[in-house]
Design a protein that fits this description.
CATH superfamily of one domain: NAD(P)-binding Rossmann-like Domain
Number of strands: 12
Strand content: 15-25%
Distance between the termini: 52 Å
Radius of gyration: 19 Å
Shape: globular
CATH topology of one domain: Rossmann fold
Length: 341
């Protein structure tokens, strides 16, 4: 089914922006609206130079506000919603869970209600962190138990369950997607890859939690966006679809690779006290998704990482614009204040 008017929440952020760009460049007929509250992770700079910009409109609003959502629906009349607006940073959720409850739980319910009233499809974008630490080394399937380890993951799991319950209770046309760690251009600079890239270039220390051997799978944002396009077009209501890169790396290995690409020195790496409840390993089994949606990632990790690091180094104006006082405060509260591991 072709959706001609797609409302994208959170498209001034990283993954939402990657999806919005792919949506506009792959469908010359689609009209898109961004609904974004422009918090620390949402930036108007991400909405510049969009492909098909004439077919896009921006509206500032909070997904947790029923009034803001109703106004956006009335103005745009969407026939589908892709919901990416979320509080996403684990460290911030440990410092203050309240915004995560508001956006990830209440905001999801507000959108579910609006989509059900309008009779339109909703795609809820979630995370592998809802499954918690895969201590046994296995990859989580959509039927694996949800065992979130931190407030961020717990609120995302709650939103997922609200969406699946809406399908079961009301027969609502809603589906859930879960992905592994994403990377690419325009990611807020407090995330691992842009943070370490910019600090490496500046000759600053690179704080790594604990031993740095926490292992994550990495998926390029454009590959994830292609998966979301497939889910929007071909996904079945009530299903959970999973997108993985199949590129497991330790955090330490990622930082070492960034150092080499950014021209830093190994002596910049500093192991600091670990994050509370830090999961060691995440992994997703996406075999069913690949078969059902005819999707697979196409970008090899090493050249994609090199291109990503190069993008941040080549765009200092963007980095300065989006890394303001909020980032400095966050770094002081999390990394700078931690002692040696």
């Amino acid at each position: 089914m072709a959706h001609q008017r797609v409302l994208v929440t959170g498209a001034a952020g990283f993954i939402g922006n990657a999806f919005l760009r792919r949506l506009l460049e792959t469908d010359a007929d689609v009209q898109a609206m961004t609904l974004d509250a422009l918090t620390y992770a949402g930036h108007r700079e991400n909405l510049e130079d969009l492909p098909g910009a004439a077919r896009h409109v921006f509206r500032q609003g909070d997904v947790a506000s029923a009034e803001d959502v109703a106004a956006a629906f009335a103005a745009f009349q969407p026939d589908a919603v892709v919901h990416l607006a979320a509080e996403t940073h684990v460290d911030r959720s440990i410092l203050d869970p309240a915004p995560f409850m508001r956006t990830n739980v209440h905001g999801t319910q507000v959108l579910l209600d609006a989509c059900r009233a309008a009779g339109i499809r909703m795609v809820l974008v979630s995370t592998d962190e809802v499954y918690g630490d895969r201590e046994d080394g296995t990859a989580a399937t959509p039927d694996s138990p949800l065992r979130p380890s931190n407030p961020y993951a717990a609120t995302k799991a709650a939103g997922d369950l609200l969406a699946l319950a809406a399908h079961r209770t009301h027969g609502q046309d809603v589906l859930v997607t879960r992905c592994t760690n994403n990377f690419g251009p325009r990611q807020t600079p407090e995330k691992l890859i842009p943070l370490m890239t910019l600090r490496a270039q500046a000759g600053k220390r690179l704080p790594i939690y604990g031993d740095g051997l926490q292992r994550r799978d990495w998926l390029h944002g454009d590959d994830h966006a292609d998966g979301l396009l497939a889910a929007l077009a071909r996904g079945a209501p009530g299903r959970v679809y999973q997108f993985a890169g199949g590129r497991g790396r330790t955090n330490l290995a990622i930082v070492q690779a960034i150092l080499a690409l950014a021209g830093g020195a190994p002596t910049q790496i500093e192991h600091v006290g670990d994050r509370p409840g830090h999961d060691r390993y995440y992994a997703l089994d996406d075999a069913a998704t690949r078969a059902e949606l005819a999707w697979a990632p196409t970008r090899d990790f090493e050249p994609a990482l090199e291109a990503t690091v190069a993008w941040y180094l080549a765009n200092p104006a963007w980095c300065r614009a989006v890394a303001g006082e909020g980032l400095r405060t966050f770094l002081e509260a999390n990394y700078e204040a931690r002692g040696p591991a």
